[in-house]
Queue: 4 jobs
Job 1
Amino acid sequence: MKISGVITQLRTTDLESSIRFYTKQMGMELAFRHQNFYAGIRAGNQIFHLKQVDVQDPSIAYISQCEHFHLYLETDDATSLSKVLKDNGVNLVKDLHETSWSTREFVIEDDQGHTLYFGEAI
């Protein structure tokens, strides 16, 4: 399944937990790791970064209230991907739906509360 996205950095207060979430539950690949504070997660042909911090990302509450996202990942099959993620125990914050801008999308939150949208052009 093809997934592509943009390179970004997400803050985590528990790097080990976040790596497990993205590799085990999401099925992504650990691309690199730098000591105990920085890691890269491969999502298709893109990599986003996880950075260990002491305090939860302050944007989480704001983004949740405004229905915006920390990361948008494109997929070629949102229907199949949403099913796989549900089967892996990932909670969909917003179920699979079609948008007025010609995408099929669903929304999850990662182990830290970051909002991730997955979308497919239709």
Note: The first helix runs from residue 15 to 25.
Job 2
Amino acid sequence: MRRASLVQAAASIDPARVQTTVTLSAHDRHRRRIRMVADDGGDFLLDLPNATHLRDGDGLLLDDGGVIVVRAAAEQVIDLHSSTVEQQVRLAWHIGNRHLPVQILPGGSLRLHLDEVLVTMAEGLGARVERLCAPFQPEPGAYDPHGLVGAAEPLIRWAR
């Protein structure tokens, strides 16, 4: 079975080495060791030293030098838009107080997994709620090395 043990930032992937893709939900893009099935039907072992937040476009470097590119699956999400900065900050505070995964979109709107309780809360706080089927890339934790180095680091090695 093919084995992927390193994560490669999207900007540093050699297109000639790409063998296939794997499309995963946000939840399934936070893994350490698991058997996965690529989009072409071939299986491989994801075998990272630490649980890692994989981003859309990241590469999983295979032992044979090939790369499997990670794609973010479309999911049921809500985008929350506010008309004022104060309203958006208040909304962000309430979401943060619930410790929910959130994606910050360009312009400051927030994306979350669809949850009708959150829809009611957001509308009650004056937000405009947009329901979508779209990729979800929540913010990594503040101490997540992948979140800190991101695409600036061409090859992320977790092995000591």
Note: The chain has three helices and eleven strands.
Job 3
Amino acid sequence: MKFVIYHGTSMKNALNILDNREFISQSKINHWLGNGVYFFVNDPDAAEWWGNMKSPDDGAVMSAEIELDESEILDLDTLTGANVLNEFYDLWNDLNSDLEFPLETIRFIKDNPSQAKHVQMSIVLDLIFEMYGYKACMYSFVIERLQV
């Protein structure tokens, strides 16, 4: 499957990506769809919004065309993808008491209790990617209707 993807970022980061010819992922404890680079599929407006939100003075939008096999994509907008996530999440919760978390993760959750769910999702999705060989994850944002 071919996709046109858009990435919202700062101008400095965009120039760095162009110079190095690669997107560089930054790991975060609470990346809600796992660690990696986040893109918007067929939505340059969303990428522009994100780039301006993250870097108001010098937001930038980059685009690229990628091709992935359907088996390499965990599509959480489908029942199949949601089932993969839910089944693995249930398994992870069953094993949770036996797992040891790095001290940094424990401190982060203690200091940011509202982010605990994002931390769990990031850990689970990183494990799913590693175990099943996914290269991309898709999930749609809920867009609230603006009240006029």
Note: The first strand starts at residue 2 and ends at 10.
Job 4
Amino acid sequence: MDPALVTLALEGPAAYRDRYELVFRHRAERPNVTWQADHTELDILITGASGTPTGPG
């Protein structure tokens, strides 16, 4: 038998996930428990009233 299926049957889904899943998946117990932020800087170009592009600020 496949060792992964034996682990699932005998030790349960948590042991199977810990041993055989390639990606860690976190399941939140309720909404807004986990937040993720992206700190990527964006290139922002602002067009002035004359239609010429200017920088922010």
Note: DSSP finds two helices and two strands in the chain.
